[in-house]
Amino acid sequence: MAAPTRDLLETFPNPCPDRDYTIESVCPEFTSVCPKTGQPDFGTLTITYVPDKLCFELKSLKLYLQQYRNHGAFYEAVTNAILDDLVAVTQPRSMRILAAFTPRGGIQTNVIAEYPGGS
Questions:
Q1: CA geometry: angle 48, 53, 56, nearest 5 deg
Q2: Number of Cα atoms under 13 Å in the Cβ half of residue 95
Q3: pTM (2 decimals)?
Q4: What angle (nearest 5°) sits at the alpha carbon of residue 46, between those of residues 85 and 23?
Q5: Residue 119 scores a pLDDT above 90
């Protein structure tokens, strides 16, 4: 299976580029594959961003995220790859992804990645 590609992500012009406002998209059905066990990993992605000139289109986001269903990667790699791709196509003022994965073996893991990076 090919690695996920950002080519599926589409954008549209920010209707209010002179104003800072926040967009939050919640994706409660995210699925990827554990590279160690081959088992599916399930989680909820919360993508929060302040757009600059572009916003991402939601149907294209859905199609982009579906690429991860058969892609083996650790939580940390998946979260950061998604952030990198969304930042590359939208060039936002800021963006944050909270990836809340369902418990496995009694452990729930949340991964938070932010742009621009910081503490």
A1: 45
A2: 24
A3: 0.94
A4: 80
A5: no
